[in-house]
Amino acid sequence: MNMRKKLLSFIVAVMVFATCCPTATASDIQPRASEYLSQYTVALTEGDSAGEIKVIYSIIPSRKATVAGLSKIEIYKANGAYITTIYGSKENGLLTELTVAYCSGTYVYSGISGTSYYAKVTVYGGNATASDTRTITTRTVVAP
Hints:
mainly beta
């Protein structure tokens, strides 16, 4: 009987611990560094005007990279329906020749007010000989 009480106490302790501590699933874990990308963050937020959403990014490339930014932004509705792709370039400001140790910015997409969107955003770091990319899927937001 005493052994049964100890086992029950152990099971209860494990259950309490499991519910109190957040866990990560395999889909939550994404590599955040490479030979050309030291750190990066991407977020999708509501825009300031009706129908707008913002892709906000910050990238710290490695010393090897001379260009960094976003190579691609794919916009989707919450149900998975593809909307459009925006390709990064120096002309639209999504790719930057590095003069400082990081790059950051905001891209505003004009959609339909009240529609839920998410994005698949590809970050880029590279030089004349090689490069690397990572793709992040953002959370879903509702355009105001």
